[in-house]
Amino acid sequence: MAKLTVTFLGTSAAAPTKERGLPAVVVQREGELVLLDAGEGVQRGFIVMGLGLNRETTILITHLHGDHVAGLPGLLWTMVFAQRTRPLTIVAPAALREWLEATAKILHLGLTFPLTFVPAKRGRVLRLPAFEIVAERASHSVETFSYIVQERTRPGVFFPKKAKRLGVPEGKLWSRLQKGRSVVVKGRTIRPSQVTGPPRPGRRVGYSGDTRPTNALTRFFHGCDLLVFDSTFTNAEGDKAVEFKHSTSSEAAALAKQAGVRRLALTHFSARYTSTTTLVKEARRKFPNSFAAADGLSVEVDYPSM
Predict the structure, then answer these.
(1) In-domain check, residue 305
(2) Using CA atoms, how far apart are residues 225 and 230, in angstroms rounded to an integer?
(3) Which residues are marked as active site?
(4) 66 to each of 46, 70, 71, 104, how far by Cα in Å?
(5) Which helix or strand (DSSP H or E) is residue 233 part of?
(6) I need a labelling partner for 32 at 20 to 30 A (CA). Which of 43, 211, 273, 300 fits?
(7) What CA–CA distance (Å, rounded) separates 258 from 221?
(8) What does pTM read for this prediction?
(9) Number of domains composing the chain
(10) Are both 209 and 285 inside the same structural domain?
(11) Which of 140, 148, 172, 205 is nearest to 4 (CA)?
């Protein structure tokens, strides 16, 4: 089974600290990467974590605040120096295209690879080799989107006895059927559905960006295997969460519980906190399977037990 990991490159809010960089999270499945937000210095995180700069990569930007997007020109510039040739796709609110084109022109950013821009919208945004990307509106001070990185549906469980009864020889043909492809044996076409169970859903990683909790996001993130959610403030600063349109860790946990997610990663911590202990404690009172993200932390997302 393919390994799916989520790596946190930056987990601070608005301003970096000694321990935390600005928002950036990478979802990786085999050689395919999806970067969620691009805070300043994100390219160094790629280098430190050995993610590679010439892999199949898609970038999802939640909104146009500097802490979430200012690292994008530097990342593209570093990819040029790494002689990237693979195409790159960026999904973001429509206004990002104008900003990025102006920045690239002023900085003479001569790309060595094709760059495609896709305006963010509600619903399915993009279909990738390993993933589908879907989006929902978030509730922040500017146009903001939340995303789900959805692993493509897997073929059902393979039943060797059924394959043998149909005369399919073990080896390459079994492998093709397991991957959801039909095979031909002595002139007969054997379909995957004849030797496998029903298709199984892939793993789902949700990412909120900056937002207040909303009913729409609760529905949107329903059943995610891992939810990465805005947890800027403790309960004591709940008034600031409302004023600046962020969430407390407790609010993030309440949404995670209602949405029925499997795990909650708290992130986007205000620089006023030198420790996440209180944030985690407040979250776990409502959703025990909560943890604090940290720069350089990688977590594996397992398939749900059947």
Answers:
(1) no
(2) 17
(3) 67
(4) 19, 5, 8, 16
(5) none
(6) 211
(7) 10
(8) 0.92
(9) 2
(10) yes
(11) 205
Answer yes or no: are the C-beta atoms of 36 and 24 closer than 8 Å. yes
List Cα–Cα distances, 12 to 47, 61, 292, 301, in angstroms.
Answer: 19, 16, 11, 22
Above 60 in pLDDT, residue 306?
A: no
Amino acid letter, 282: E
With residue 15 as reference, give the H or E element that holds it: none
Domain extent at residue 241 = 4-152+201-300
The CA radius of gyration of the chain, in Å to the nearest whole number, is 21
CA neighbor of 3 nearest in space, from 224, 302, 293: 302
pLDDT tens digits for 122-160? 999 999 999 999 999 999 999 999 999 999 988 788 899
pLDDT tens per residue across span 37-90? 999 999 999 999 999 999 999 999 999 999 999 999 999 999 999 999 999 999
Q: Is residue 139 part of a domain?
A: yes
pLDDT surpassing 90 at residue 178: no
